[in-house]
């Protein structure tokens, strides 16, 4: 049986955001994995092999920039697109600094979430 589920990981320490995003994305056929910290990020991502990663800027412990840079340095994982999301007004700079493919400003509406994920899937 061929597995067609697209997989996504959301790294965010805000349980409300995790539950809303999980609900919306599961409705769209995604297999959603969530983590409230980015400790052992390479092991976490490697075990799931997601198609997309949503990364919060303020994720414990090391933060989204270091977490994203860690993934982008890993030969096996660097191809996975990262959508950086934050309420920070400098989000574009933060996303660029982290090496993320794109970004989503918080608060976002769910249409924006879907559009950004679709766009990053098409370009990869």
Describe the structure in brief.
With 124 residues, the chain is of the alpha/beta class. The protein is globular and about 30 Å long. Helix content is 42%, strand content 21%.
Account of the protein in words:
The protein has 124 residues and is an alpha/beta fold. The protein has a five-stranded parallel sheet, with helices on both faces. Helix 3 links the parallel strand 3 and strand 4.
What distance separates the N and C termini? Answer: 25 Å
Count of DSSP H/I helices: 5
Mean pLDDT: 94
Structural class: alpha/beta
* Percent helix range: 40-55%
| Rg on CA atoms, Å | 13 Å
Strand order of the largest sheet: 2-1-3-4-5
How much strand?
Answer: 15-25%
Q: Main β-sheet: number of strands, strand sense, barrel status?
A: 5 strands, parallel
Low-confidence stretches: none
Shape, principal axes of CA atoms: globular
**Element order: H for helix, E for strand:** EHEHEHEHEH
| Number of E-type strands | 5
Secondary structure: elements and pairs:
Elements: E1 6-11, H1 15-27, E2 30-35, H2 41-48, E3 52-56, H3 64-72, E4 82-86, H4 91-98, E5 102-105, H5 110-123
Parallel strand pairs: 1-2, 1-3, 3-4, 4-5
Helix pairs in contact: 3-4
What attributes characterize this protein structure?
5 strands; alpha/beta; five-stranded parallel β-sheet; 124 residues; 5 helices
């Amino acid at each position: 049986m061929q597995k067609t589920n697209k997989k996504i990981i959301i790294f965010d320490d805000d349980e409300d955001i995790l539950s809303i995003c999980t609900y919306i994305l599961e409705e769209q056929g995604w297999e959603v994995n969530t983590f409230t910290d980015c400790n052992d990020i390479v092991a976490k991502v490697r075990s799931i092999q997601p198609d997309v990663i949503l990364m919060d800027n303020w994720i414990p412990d090391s933060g989204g920039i270091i977490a994203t840079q860690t993934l982008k340095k890993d030969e096996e994982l660097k191809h996975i697109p990262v959508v950086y999301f934050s309420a920070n007004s400098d989000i574009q700079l933060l996303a660029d600094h982290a090496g993320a493919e794109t970004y989503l400003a918080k608060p976002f509406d769910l249409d924006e979430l879907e559009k950004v994920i679709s766009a990053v899937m098409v370009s990869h």
